[in-house]
Amino acid sequence: MTQKNNKFISPGAWFSMIYPSDWNEFEDGEGSFLFYNPDKWTGNFRISAYKADPNLPNSKMYGQESVSQELAENPSATVAKVGDLKCAYTKTVLKENESSYVVHLWIVGIDDITFECSFTLPLDKTSVKEAEDIIASLKVRDLDKKYPAELIPVRLIEIHQINEGFEWVALTVKTTLKKDFKGVEDDLSKLQEMIEKDSLGKKQKANSIAYGIAICVILANEIDGFAWKTLIDGNREVPVLQYKDSETVIDPMKFVWSKVKRGESCNVITEYVRIIEEIGK
User: Fold this and answer.
1) φ, ψ (nearest 5 deg) of residue 175
2) In degrees rounded to 5, what are phi and psi of residue 44?
3) Is the pLDDT reported for residue 70 higher than 90?
4) ∠ CA(25), CA(30), CA(35), 5° rounding?
5) Which of 22, 103, 227, 235 has the smallest C-beta neighbourhood within 10 Å, fewest atoms?
């Protein structure tokens, strides 16, 4: 059976890559992105990207110059071809507690971006095909170009935004109404009460979006088929809900904030019922 793949677009939309659909993104150091299969571990893939200052001369050559510099300065580095990309490749053995691992490292340059890609495997595993397939898929995105809007699997940065928004709403409800907020359908009336108490204005965008996120959390908890995705649309990189890979996409911003901007009232129960009726058609 053909392996399905997912697409990752980096924060800031610098680059994209394709990775196996049974891999997930996990926490790593700042500026580094970590992926692996949590159910059947086949290796840790990390990627970091460094973009040249556009004001520097020959900034478009930064990527290839980084590869050449690595080959010249690191005696362990060798030239490797991954897909259409020329890379500087090194391999080292790492010991951690009683276990030994092999760390494969590729320095890759495309236009004005340098990538550091590593794949960490147990010492007895030798195949790096999964990592090489990801590296070969790397694309640098033109920040001056308008790309079509895309939905990709929800990234960690948006998961943090969802969690922060929900936690703020739960704490606000607890503090103001002295009631628990668990993210279930019965909480909709509490949300409506909070929105009315808040008297949301045009300077309260963050609060309005947090309320929208809380409504989406309730939808995801109560109705099978909803999944969080990241929407990449120009400068907007935000969490949204998608229903069963359909065209039904729920944007938390539009629940409350879009109405506040237009000076309209918001009834979250009415909106919730409308969505349920829409997906039931």
Assistant:
1) -75, -40
2) -100, 125
3) yes
4) 20
5) 235
Find out whether 215 and 201 touch, Cβ atoms under 8 Å: no
Token pair listed for 195: 């929105």
Tell me how crowded residue 110 is: count the other CB atoms within 10 A of its CB: 19
The Cα–Cα gap between 209 and 165 comes to 8
For 85-100, what is the HEC assignment? EEEEEEEEEEEECCEE
- For 142-174, give one letter per residue: b (16+ CB within 10 A) or e: eeeeeeeeebbbbbbebeebbeebbebbbebbe
Q: Is 244 left (phi over 0), alpha (psi -120 to 50) or beta?
A: left
Closest CA to 32 of 63, 52, 65, 8: 8
Give the pLDDT band (50/70/90) at residue 212: very high
pLDDT (tens digit per residue) in 214-265:
999 999 999 999 999 999 999 999 999 999 988 899 999 888 888 878 877 7
3-state secondary structure of 175: helix
Token look-up 């000076």 returns 263
CA 220, CA 242: separation in Å to the nearest integer?
9
> What tens digit of pLDDT does each residue of 172-197 get?
999 999 999 999 999 999 999 988 87
CA angle 46–29–228, rounded 5-degree value: 75
**Phi/psi zone of residue 217: left (φ > 0), alpha (ψ -120 to 50 degrees), beta?**
alpha
Res 1 pLDDT > 70: no
Number of other residues whose CB lies within 10 A of the CB of residue 3? 9
Q: State how far Cα 270 lies from the chain centre.
A: 30
Query: Cβ of 86: how many Cβ atoms within 10 Å?
Result: 15
Q: 230 by DSSP, 3-state: which? A: strand
Per the listing, tokens 């993210």 go with: 183
Q: What six digits make up the tokens of 60? A: 């478009």
